[in-house]
Specification:
Elements: E1 11-14, E2 18-25, E3 37-44, H1 46-56, E4 61-64, E5 66-67, H2 71-82, E6 91-92, E7 99-104, E8 110-116, H3 125-129, H4 132-137, E9 140-144, H5 149-158, E10 163-167, E11 186-190, H6 191-198, H7 205-217, E12 222-226, E13 232-235, E14 240-243, H8 256-269, H9 274-289
Parallel strand pairs: 1-4, 1-9, 2-7, 5-6, 9-10, 10-11, 11-12
Antiparallel strand pairs: 2-3, 7-8, 12-13, 13-14
């Protein structure tokens, strides 16, 4: 089955596709001991999750990533194809899958995780340079920091005059964008990552405002700062505001940040205002929080953007 989309994709996503191994204890988590609970395995990765959600939202999307050669990776690749994601520019290897292993707290919030992203070093500048028609033809280019610093630099510099959307993924990978802030169109980052990026406190409202202003002063055009249960702070010349997260019963937090990003990107591609982008992102994240996997399959366009 061909994965090529005849027309240039509306969105091109470059980032991780991982196998998620998620453990949830039955009781309060006890450190340095074996905790009875439940373990489930799912398809994940920030870039892959965003691409699948965009496909659910009926947006043509291509994904540039690397898949391992084991059964889990090949099943994940087949799932992406069935979801309608263009994988023409993705890499197939004989290596082991990239894996995200997370241990959650009893309330379903993350306690700690270990992520093996070495596979994505294969998404090199040389590989990306062979698919410039996808990079340049996309209305929005999404990149996550699972890929190498060199590849991120290449992508952001290549798209400096167009819309690029960067998701920083985690504290240990956020340093990759530090020198590129003046070239970033839209940045989605959470409080922990922002603290690591800026070496600034992020506890009080004033500290959040100060850190957001600092990031914007470095040249970022649009900033979406995820605050978890506290919602979202949006900062740009067009619109700045704290926005509350919808109240939902949380089943799983893994993938909620990716859903937030996907909702924002979807609204951006629909040329919505930044306030509407934030609303779409928060609604998408709320749907993710109510589902045990990383991508809630019920997500549809009418759930994110009100028709007028």
């Amino acid at each position: 089955m061909s994965t090529t989309i005849n027309q240039p994709p509306t969105c091109c996503v470059v980032g991780g596709a991982l196998i998620d191994v998620i453990g949830i204890p039955d009781r309060s988590l006890i450190s340095h001991d074996s905790n009875p609970g439940k373990v489930h395995i799912a398809y994940g990765g920030v870039g892959r999750n965003i691409a699948e959600i965009l496909s659910l939202l009926q947006m043509p999307v291509s994904l540039i990533t690397a898949f391992g050669g084991d059964g889990w990776a090949q099943d994940m690749r087949a799932h992406c194809i069935r979801a309608g994601i263009d994988l023409e520019a993705s890499i197939n290897t004989e290596r082991s899958s990239a894996v995200h292993m997370a241990v959650m707290q009893r309330d379903r919030d993350l306690s700690v995780s270990v992520t093996d992203i070495n596979l994505f070093k294969m998404v090199s500048v040389a590989h990306l340079n062979a698919f410039t028609h996808k990079l340049d033809g996309a209305k929005v280019l999404v990149a996550d920091t699972n890929i190498s610093e060199e590849s991120l630099h290449y992508l952001i510099r290549r798209r400096k005059d167009k819309i690029n959307f960067i998701d920083t993924v985690s504290g240990p990978t956020v340093h990759k964008i530090r020198e590129l802030l003046p070239l970033i169109h839209t940045l989605k980052i959470n409080a922990l990552e922002a603290k690591r990026l800026t070496n600034r406190a992020m506890e009080t409202k004033q500290e959040i405002l100060s850190t957001a202003s600092y990031i914007r002063d470095q040249g970022v055009k649009n900033l979406f700062l995820s605050l978890g249960k506290r919602g979202l702070y949006v900062h740009s010349n067009e619109f700045s505001a704290f926005m509350a997260a919808p109240a939902v019963k949380v089943v799983n937090t893994n993938g909620a940040g990716d859903a937030l990003g996907a909702g924002i990107v979807y609204a951006m591609m629909k040329d919505k205002s930044l306030e509407e982008c934030a609303i779409a992102g928060l609604r998408c994240a709320a749907l993710s929080l109510q589902y045990p996997g990383a991508v809630n399959p019920v997500i549809r366009p009418e759930m994110l953007i009100s028709s007028r």
